[in-house]
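DM between two lab members

TW: hey, do you still have the Hemimethylated DNA-binding domain-containing protein entry open?
JB: yeah, one sec
JB: this one, 595 aa:
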Amino acid sequence: IAAHLLNLPTELLEYILCFPVLKHVDICNVSCCCKRLHDVCHGRGKVWGHQYKLRWPRLQRFYRQNECCDWLREYKTRHRVGIQIHSTVESISKRFFTEVVLGDSFAEIESLGMPEHFCEDELLFILSSDKRKSLTLKYYAKKILYFLRQQNILRSLKTFLEQPAEQQSSLEGAVLVDQYCNPLADVTVDSISAQLDEIAEKVKKMLRIKNASHPSLRITQGDRFVVEDFELQRQVLWALNSVLYEQLQYKGNEFDYYNPLNSYIHQVLLRHTGIPISLSVLYMTLAQKLGVQLEPVNFPNHFLLRWCQKPRGSEDIYDFVYIDAFGKGKQLTAKECEYLIGHQVTADYYSAINTTEVLLRMVGNLEGNEKSYQLLRDSLDLYLTINPDNVQYLLLQARLYFHLGIWPEKVLDILQHIQALDPSQHGAVGYLVQHTLEHIQHKKHPAAPEVKMRSVSEHREVKYSVGLIMKHKRSGYNCVIYGWDPKCTMSQEWITTMRVHQLSNGASQPFYNVLVQDGTCRYAAQENLEPHSAPLEIGHQEVGRYFSEFADTHYVANEELQTRYPEDMDKTLDTVQELYHRLTPGCITHNPKTL
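TW: and the structure you got?
JB:
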C-alpha cells in the first residue's frame, strides 16, 4: 500500500495531506517517512500552506492570493509567538495584580521583537476561547491588545500630522482619535468612508429630484470636482439637509452632550447623534464629496462651518454663510452666530482653521466628558501627540501618572521636558521629581500583600466569601464578592455620607468589596447582601483580574486572589452547597459545579 501511495502524482498526495483531520504533528511525521513525502511536504508547498491557513485563518489578509511563501517557517514563527505570548501574559497577571491602573506594564511585549500581527492574532485567539474559562488570562490579554493597538494608532497619527496641511483630512484625523479611544473596536477609515459614500448616494437621489442635470450627480468616488455656481451649491446643501436631518434623523445630543460617544465618528454614524464638531466633520466631508467646499470654524462653545459667497474667496466675515451642523444644518449670518452663544466675539473667531486645530478641539472635548482615568489618559496622549510642547498639558499628564502611581520613569522624562520648556515651573517640577523618586524606591521594595484568614477570631462574623454571587437587598443589584473586611475601613466622612450609622449593625459589621453588574465597584455592608438564588455571570470588566473562571454557581478565585484569601474557596463551596440544598430539598448531589 505504501509503495502504491508513493507512486501517486504529487498533486494527489498534496490533496490527501490537506485533509482537515490531519494536524501539523501528522504532517511532520509523514514528512519523516521518506524522501518522496519529505519533498511533497516542503516548506513552500501546498501542504504547509494549508496547515497554516487552517490553524490561523485571521492571518490570511496579510498575504496576497497565491503568494509564494515559506509556510513552514511562518508556521514555526507563529507557533513560537503563541508560546511566548501565553508565557508573558501569565507572568504579567502575577506581577501586576496589585496595580490599580497599569502603566508601561506591557511595553515588554514590544521589546520581544515578534511580528506584530502574530502577537495580535494570538491575543485575539486567547480572547475568543471558552467564554467562562481562563478569565484572568483574557483580562490581561485584552489589556495588552489595547496597549499594542494604541501604540500603532499613535504612530499612524504622527505620520498623518507630518503630511502637508492641504493633504490632511479632518475625517481621517477624527477616525484616528476614535480608534485611539476605542482600540478594540473595528473602526477603519475605509469603513467610515464607505458609510459616508452611502449617505452621499442618498443625497444624490434627493438632488436629482431638484435638478436632474446637476453636475454633482456625475461625481464618482475619488473625484475632486468643485461646483462653482452658488445656486448649484445651494441645491446640494438643501439635499444634504433633507437626507441627513429629515430622512436619516441625525441630531445634536442636547440631553447628554458630554457623553464621549458623541465624539466618536463610528458612534455618531451608528446612533445618528453627535455634538457640533463631530456632526460638522461629517457634514463637511459629505459636502466635499458632492463638490461643495466648506471650512471649519473654531467658534467658541459651538463649532461651525462656513460657506464662502464670493467667487474668489474672502476674509471678510460678512462674505460667508455659517452652517450649524448641530442645528440641523441651519444657515446663519455672522450676527446670528453671536445670538447662538449669547455674546459678541471678535472677527478672529470666524476664521477657518486647519485639521490640526480641529483635532485639538475634538480631543479637548473628550477631557471633561466623564470621570474616567482611562479617557483622561487617552485625551492627554492624543493632545500631546498633536501639540507635544504644551506645558500645561505636560504638567497635567505628569500629575495624572503621579496620582495613579504608574510609569514613574516616564513621569521623570515629562518633568525634564517641562523644565527645559519653561524653567518657571521649577516649583511644581521639583515637588513631583522628589516624590516620584520616592515612589521608584518604594516599588523596588514592595510591601507583602495582606493575607486574611477566616479562621482568625476577629473574622468570625464574616459570613460570605470571595467568588460568591450576591444580590443587594435594598438596591437590587447583582454582584460578585472580590474582597472583605471584618469592619468598615472607610473614612468617617464616607461613613457619614453613606449613612452607615442608619444600618442596624452600623460600621462594626463586615463589609464587602463587590463588582456590580452595571460596571461599578462598591463597598457593601453584610446585612444588605444575600446570596443570589439564581447565580448568574457578572458582566464587569474587572472580573478577570480576580477570578479564573465562572463555575455556574460562583466564580473561582485566581491564584493571586487565593493567596490573599487562602481559606475562602472552601467557604464559597459550602455556601453554594447550602443554598442549593435550601432551594432543592432532597437532592443528594455534593458537587455545586454540576448545578
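TW: got it. The CA atoms of residues 257 and 275 lie 7 Å apart. The radius of gyration is 30 Å.
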